[in-house]
Amino acid sequence: MVSRQNIELPSGASTATNDVAVNTAEHAVEWAVNDHPAIYLPDTSFLLEGQFERVGFDLVITNPDGVVFVVADYFSFTPPPNLMLPDGIGLSPEMVAEFLHLPFDGLMFAGEATSANALEKIGEVTISIGDVRVKRIGDDGETVEVSLKRGDALFKGDELITGDRAFVKVRMLDGTQFNLGKNARASLTEFQYDESAKLGQFEATVLRGGFHYKSGKIGKFAASGRAHSKISTPSAVIGIRGSEADGFVAEDGQLVLKHISGQFEVSDINGNLVGILDSPENALVVFSDGSGQVTPLAQLSPELNRALNEYTQGAEAAEALEAEAEAAEAEAEAEAAEAEASKAAEAGRSRSRGGGGAEAAAEAEAAEAEADSRSEKQKQASGGGRSRSRGGGGTKQKPRRREEQQREAEAAEAREAAAEAAEAAEAQTRAEAAEAREQKPRRRRQSRSRSRGGERKQRRRRQQRRR
């Protein structure tokens, strides 16, 4: 079934509308706060779960059941209207734009555009559990949807979707963390990071599901009194300053934001202040009608507590799996470094046996021993990671980035030591071979000289006997 919503403005304004419609809706555009127009959709299946598509100047929305709702001439207005539900939640034109996946900039302006944007990497997946997918513009300019796994790159404009019992953890280029729990849908709207200029910005939109945010280096770049990050939801827009928080967007668009650190300034989708969250053990609940209330965590409703706990439990399980994966990687790196060092040491010993080189062989053996020692330390560290992951103690372990850097440095040192030992052995062998080549002619001359001296002595003895 297709419904078509013609946009009608108040008296005195005019716009062309297309009279061809199937099941035409009779609702006119209403003017919301800040004189921003709003058009109302039938239910949350269109607003929070719908697939958005631009067809000419129309906005076409298809819900999961295949029902189509057309907002006629949506793109002919600057700016286009908010998409709302009668209970108060909605999407601003900017939020709608994030889920259109159009291959050009300026999509809110009337008219067609043709140039495609190059993908801009902004981060990568550090862990992916269950059904985790991304929607983005492909190389041919068409929208594609693919599965995500650990190590996959993420790009500006990616839409992340998680299924039941799924979890994804994202690390941006500056170290900012953004995680999604099960049955979530979010868009990575904006990311800028320039360490030399001390500039940074992160923006995302979460339509449903649990999420976690923790500022990276961009948290130190924010100007006084200004948010460096923003997370938009159907009921509120969260301005973030140097912060960490858990959040959950319910099926009706209601938001609960749990404070961990920093400050959050929350407004509605039109920029009107709802509340400020800046103290631990508290949460800000934004209801579907746009009103907000700071509530102690102990006083949250059972439903909201359960939603936050489900996300937290999923995150803890993911942290444990990530620790185990990192431990396995560390062990593999240690074994590779050990094998490389052993190979280099054996090559040094072989060359030393061929040309002398006892000192080179000793250096090679020392390098191998050092590599073995480092490898053993890495294996112990990886075993500790597994122990932590099995025990669920992910929050007690050292910062992972520091551990990764330390493991990489140790492996690099082992490889460098092995290479230096092999190079020293080869140099020693070449030197001894050259010395041996120089000594051979000298020994021949000495041998000939001794031989001539012996012949002269023998001739004297024979002459003496004859006399």
What about the largest sheet?
Answer: 15 strands, mixed
Low-confidence stretches: 8-29, 106-117, 392-399
Strand content: 25-35%
Instruction: Just name the CATH architecture of the largest domain.
Output: Sandwich
**SS-based class:** alpha+beta
Descriptive notes:
The protein is α+β, with helices and mostly antiparallel strands and 467 residues long. The protein has three domains: 2-98, no CATH class; 121-300, Jelly Rolls, CATH 2.60.120; 312-436, no CATH class. The chain is built from five helices and 23 strands. The strands form three sheets. The chain has a 15-stranded mixed beta sheet that branches. It has a four-stranded mixed beta sheet with strand order 1-6-5-4, with no helix packed on it. Strands 2-3-7-8 form a four-stranded mixed beta sheet. Strand 7 (82-84) and strand 8 (90-91) form a beta hairpin. Helix 4 packs antiparallel against helix 5. It starts with a strand and ends with a helix. Residues 8-29, 106-117 and 392-399 have low confidence and may be disordered.
